[in-house]
């Protein structure tokens, strides 16, 4: 059994669990900002939503860097890479949503399922890009960046 759960795979799975926890925290923070601006300060719903998502992206980056992938090294390219990863994940999200809406019958249940598939694709894509590219560890440091088979 231990041959299946190599140190690299164990690290990957632990990162995935931390990523889920960070996602819950990030969602609560972003949604709180949206509600506070929309309901509390009566900003336009679209502006409140945009600010909430902008705050969420920043919180997500910080949590990913410090908690999920525990990357304490200065990496000047990490914020730019993270922004690219978010853009790629959103493009995948939109592609999956488009495909799901095209392929599935019309109706509320199918519309919700299409949105769910899109959300899962975004989350999975951003996690994988973050793990293997944005916060990948230096192979010379003794920690592996990739999942070794």
Task: Describe, in plain words, how this protein is organized in 3D.
With 149 residues, the chain is an all-alpha fold. Helices cover 74% and strands 0% of the residues. The chain has four helices and no strands. It has helices at residues 7-40, 45-68, 78-103, 108-134. Helix 1 runs antiparallel to helix 2 and helix 3 runs antiparallel to helix 4. The radius of gyration is 18 Å and the shape is globular. Residues 144-149 have low confidence and may be disordered.
Write a brief structural summary.
This protein is an all-alpha fold and 149 residues long.
- Tally the helices: what do you get? 4
What distance lies between the first and last C-alpha atoms, to the nearest angstrom? 14 Å
Radius of gyration: 18 Å
- What is the number of beta strands? 0
Q: Give the ordered list of helices and strands.
A: HHHH
Percent of residues in β-strands = under 5%
Please give the largest β-sheet: none
Fraction in helix: over 70%
What structural class do you assign from the helix and strand content? mainly alpha
Tertiary shape: globular
Unreliable residue runs: 144-149
Output mean pLDDT: 88
Record keyword descriptors for this entry.
149 residues, mainly alpha, 4 helices, 0% strand, globular
Q: How are the SSEs ordered, and which strands pair?
A:
Blueprint: H1 7-40, H2 45-68, H3 78-103, H4 108-134
Helix pairs in contact: 1-2, 3-4
């Amino acid at each position: 059994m231990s041959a299946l759960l190599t140190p690299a795979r164990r690290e990957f799975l632990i990162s995935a669990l931390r990523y889920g926890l960070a996602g819950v925290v990030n969602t609560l923070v972003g949604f709180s900002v949206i509600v506070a601006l929309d309901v509390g300060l009566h900003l336009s719903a679209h502006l409140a939503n945009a600010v909430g998502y902008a705050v969420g992206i920043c919180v997500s980056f910080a949590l990913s860097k410090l908690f999920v992938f525990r990357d304490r090294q200065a990496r000047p390219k990490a914020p730019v890479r993270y922004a690219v990863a978010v853009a790629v994940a959103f493009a995948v999200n939109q592609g999956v949503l488009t495909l799901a809406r095209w392929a599935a019958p019309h109706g509320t249940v199918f519309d919700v399922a299409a949105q769910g598939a899109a959300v899962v694709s975004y989350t999975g894509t951003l996690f994988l890009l973050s793990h293997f590219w944005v916060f990948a560890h230096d192979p010379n440091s003794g920690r592996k960046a990739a999942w070794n088979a």
